[in-house]
Amino acid sequence: MIPLIIIVFCAIGTTAGVLLAPVVLSAALGAIGFSATGPVAGSMAAGMQAGIGNIAAGSAFAAAQSVTMGGVMASVVSVFGGVFGAATAAAAAAAFIRT
Q1: CA pseudo-torsion sign 32, 87, 83, 5
Q2: Single pTM value for the model
Q3: Do residues 86 and 16 lie in contact, with contact meaning Cβ atoms separated by under 8 Å?
Q4: Alpha carbon distance 98, 17 (integer Å)
């Protein structure tokens, strides 16, 4: 049987991961020039786009832009954030139980 503390930690970690992952990733991408309306002129993102040329659908650049625009990739980031949050919380709870 799974101890209640691990279930509680996982629930908290999953919730935090789902809620925070898109926000943190969007902020990080915003710092290099991705915005809700496209790459900011003169930014690192604009320089990457200029170097790449025509952006292919499904590319890493397109995925980064999708996250900052709140597209489908933002949902994918939430799922991965939830999984990472749950795994991290489970490890923390297991360590907590051992002490």
Answers
A1: negative
A2: 0.69
A3: no
A4: 24
Residue 42 per-residue DSSP state: T
Q: How far is CA 61 from CA 8, 16, 26, 53, in A?
A: 37, 26, 13, 11
pLDDT digits (tens, 9 = 90+) for 22-67: 888 888 999 999 999 999 999 999 999 999 999 999 899 998 998 8
Contacts of 66 (CB under 8 A, 6+ apart): 72, 73, 74
CA distance 46 to 33: 7
- Residues 6 or more apart whose CB falls under 8 angstroms from that of 59 comprise 52
* Calpha distance 16→83 (Å, rounded): 10
How large is the average pLDDT for residues 63-79? Answer: 83
Q: Token match 């790449």: residue?
A: 52
Question: Token pair for residue 80?
Answer: 């991965």
